[in-house]
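help with this record:
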Amino acid sequence: MRALLPAVTLVLLLLGLPHAAPWFHAGWPALSHPLYVRTSFVALTVSHLLLVVSATALATAVGLALGILATRPAGRSLLPTVRAVAVVGQTFPPVAVLAIAVPLLGFGAAPTFVALVLYGVLPVLGQTVAGLDAVPAAALHAADGMGYGRWRRLIDVELPLAAGPIMAGIRLSAIVSVGTATIGSAVGATTLGSPIVEGLVGNNTAYVVQGALLVGALALTVDGLLAMAARGVGQ
């Protein structure tokens, strides 16, 4: 039930913010337009969420595949490189990735999607490797003794036992995507970062607050829902 509170908060914000102009005008009386109206908050939230979900899904698929490859006997030589990339890759700021992607892909959602996928792969990859490496040797020997092949052992034994760390990586990937998608509005993507960027450019603090409230509520909602999914997988 506690995990659903952020979702309830997000819905209340989406319902209440369009009618909150008097409150923001009271807080910032010098602003002639204290409420962001260029695009509805619901449309911004849906666009933001679709971008995050699609990028996280692709990042999860790629991260899982690379993590599994790096922990197989044929790919063990790649493991140090994979771990180094997972650590070093997090040091590059999202703005730098967007700056590189824009000349290649133009403005809009495309460069933001690329940045989300690149950043989203790293947590899933790192946690997949950590989870698979932590599978007890006794469980592997038992599976071998029961005549499991490599793929059956992976699907029926290793992945279920590594599900906790993998789900933690997916949760982190999704949260990183929520924040990075916000920055994507600076390069033309339609997200909840739009009122924040416009507020910063136009010195309108009310817009920044409105966008920040929705981004925070969305991030907590995504994390809460994935936490529920992780508990379900653990069972």
Q: What stands out?
A: The chain has one domain: 45-234.
